[in-house]
UniProtKB/TrEMBL annotation:
It holds the Pfam family M20_dimer. It is found in: Secreted. Belongs to the peptidase M20A family. The keyword Cell inner membrane does not apply. Secreted enzyme that regulates the endogenous N-fatty acyl amino acid (NAAs) tissue and circulating levels by functioning as a bidirectional NAA synthase/hydrolase. It condenses free fatty acids and free amino acids to generate NAAs and bidirectionally catalyzes the reverse hydrolysis reaction. Some of these NAAs stimulate oxidative metabolism via mitochondrial uncoupling, increasing energy expenditure in a UPC1-independent manner. Thereby, this secreted protein may indirectly regulate whole body energy expenditure. InterPro entries: Bact_exopeptidase_dim_dom, Pept_M20A, Peptidase_M20, Peptidase_M20_dimer. Residues 216-359 form the Peptidase M20 dimerisation domain. It catalyses: N-(9Z-octadecenoyl)-L-tyrosine + H2O = L-tyrosine + (9Z)-octadecenoate; N-(9Z-octadecenoyl)-L-glutamine + H2O = L-glutamine + (9Z)-octadecenoate; (5Z,8Z,11Z,14Z)-eicosatetraenoate + L-phenylalanine = N-(5Z,8Z,11Z,14Z-eicosatetraenoyl)-L-phenylalanine + H2O; an N-acyl-L-amino acid + H2O = an L-alpha-amino acid + a carboxylate. This is Peptidase M20 dimerisation domain-containing protein. It comes from the Eukaryota. It comes from Electrophorus electricus. Pathway: Amino-acid metabolism; Energy metabolism; electron transfer; Lipid metabolism; fatty acid metabolism. The chain crosses the membrane at residues 12-32.
Amino acid sequence: MLVHNKWRIIRLLTLVGLSLLLVLLILFIVVMSRTFTLKENLGLQFAQWENTTIISADIIFPNVFSSSLVKHEVVGNYSHLFTVLGTDPELVPYMLLAHIDVVPANEVDGWEAPPFSAKELNGFIYGRGTIDNKQCVMGILQAVEYLLERGYVPRRGFYIGLGHDEEVYGYNGAVNIAKVLKSGGVKLQYILDEGLAVMDGIITGLNGPAALIGVSEKGQATVKLSASTRLGHSSMPPKENSIGILAAAITRLEESPMPRLFGYGPEQSTFEHLAHKFQFPLRFMMSNLWLFNPLLSRVMERRPDMNAFVRTTTAVTMFNSGVKVNVLPSHAEAFVNLRIHPAQTLQEVLDLIKSTISDNRVKLELVDGFDSLPISSYDEQSFGYQIIKKTLLDMFPQVTVAPSICIGNTDSRHYMDLTQDIYRFNPTWLRPGEPERIHGINERMSVQNYEEIVLFYFQLIQESDIRILPPSHTGQHEL
Ligand SMILES: CCCCCCCC/C=C\CCCCCCCC(=O)N[C@@H](Cc1c[nH]c2ccccc12)C(=O)O
Ligand SMILES: [Zn+2]
Ligand SMILES: [Zn+2]
């Protein structure tokens, strides 16, 4: 009898123990697979900054700066590297980039609100950097803050790099952050940096908005041109002096734009992806670029922002000469900044400049230059591209996502040894008249778009936790 009871108690205890284990297992699965949503009004941190002097980041983002999951390092004196630990060490981490520096701004140029006030006017936050690139700095940190606040623990680890000198090439910020990661043997699944944006009403003839993701960026050349002639009294001038010689060379460069190469780089893919959103006959033309390239290029080149996709662009950005009104200038120098189309090399561009100027009195020196950057993957198996695309389409189903080429250069090029897949995209909506505000006057960000940016990163971080992409059901993109 006693033995019988003993077995009953053991059986009961085993049953209770097993049930408890089962409940714990179910709880664990529920917690691990939970996707956090962000439905409430985000109560903008941007707007809080108005009329304040210094608020330190750890007050605005208390969880980011106190969580045991997040390591914060200052790199190169002013840049920031955040390492966010993931629970699964098998999953290759990814990296989000943005930059905290801005180009100068002066209220007297015609700003509607002081450029460093973050003043809100009619639903827009005004200020230098609001669309380049503080919206991403704040958007990323705010998203991580909200996630941590909700008890989120990432499965896939990630890094956040906030450079402090992107506008002057990133040699101290991005370069040193990349060094820190490289010395730790870090490899990245993908990188998302600033770049292109959601174009709404910007691409002529396109129905609906298009999110252009930069899978490459144009190359660059900064060339110094100079001419020297005899110093002397302006009352006895020679037929030509250094200013005239250099000015004529520059005129020749401006009058002979680089060749049209539209359709020979990633922009071909851009327009193939967008083709179905154009009306006939543009739709037919975009789907048959091999035939219509010459015609389309001639139309596109009329608009500077479109011309950037057609060719290597040439911009004379500095010209210095002369010391006094009555002294012949012995020396004149100019700087030309070219953005190189992927179908051309730096060397080909330099050779063309030389033959166009065709004047041995003009000295040509390459100050800085590099070819266009490698093309990141954007097929159905491309993890980073598909995660960015899914995040975008979940938020904005009306948007067409297409690979493209970033026409400016970004900090991400310093991270090329860490990953093969770099994407340049800001979850920022650009409408007609807005691209001009980048580095221009009245740079601004709508309150609504800022909230969407926070939500974009909030969702992207959670989407990136997936181990592998689900098998794709779609074949080719629609044409
Ligand atoms: C067919 C579609 C039409 C679309 C119209 C396009 C509208 C423009 C939209 C977005 C603008 C793209 C800006 C990309 C960000 C580039 C960042 C930037 O401005 N960088 C500077 C500084 C810089 C950084 N690294 C280097 C290296 C060498 C020279 C300069 C820089 C820049 O590129 O000058
Ligand atoms: Zn920028
Ligand atoms: Zn910029």
